[in-house]
Specification:
Layout: H1 6-25, H2 32-39, H3 43-50, H4 53-76, H5 81-92, H6 100-112, H7 117-137, H8 143-165, H9 173-190
GO biological process, one term: glycine betaine biosynthetic process from choline
Domain HTH tetR-type: 8-68
Pfam families: TetR_C_6, TetR_N
Length: 195
Amino acid sequence: MPRIGMEPIRRRALIDAAISAVGERGALDVTMSDIAGRAGVSTALAHHYFGGKDDLLFATMRHVLAALGAEVRPAIAPLSGTERVRALIRVNLSPEQFRPEIIAAWLAFYVEARRNAALGRLFRIYVRRLNSDLMSGLGSLERMDAIRTAQGIAALIDGLYLRRALGEGVADASGAVSLVEDYLDMALARGGRDG
């Protein structure tokens, strides 16, 4: 007989196990059985809750994006201008977000979003939201400069995640933040404003 109230706990355990397994082995090498074992549930129960690995990866990335959003919203709400952009950079590259297992989940997300329509839609939502948040803080720049700067910041964030997933590039969150803020400062100087 199922225990009442266990479903959300088991779902979260499976999501945490998926993050851990993907971080350790990569998305293509992980099976539902591996993830279920890490979560302490049967493979059948994992399939019952999520259907298959693609569905679990989707739920995992929704969880990762929700956690990111929960950090972003309060960090940027009281801010405007370039301080808002700096807060976005700091949150997107925070120690919580720049952990190896989260980075590996993002790498799997980037790859799987190309072949999985649901993940592709989720990725496009993330991209639009990040762009909108960045643009809202770059109003001191001419529109085309703001667009290019927002695209550059987003590309740097994604690139830092990709390089870190491959064991290259900046080793820690503070170095990553510093690199992207240097880019922002150069873009602001090029725009003739210091924000």
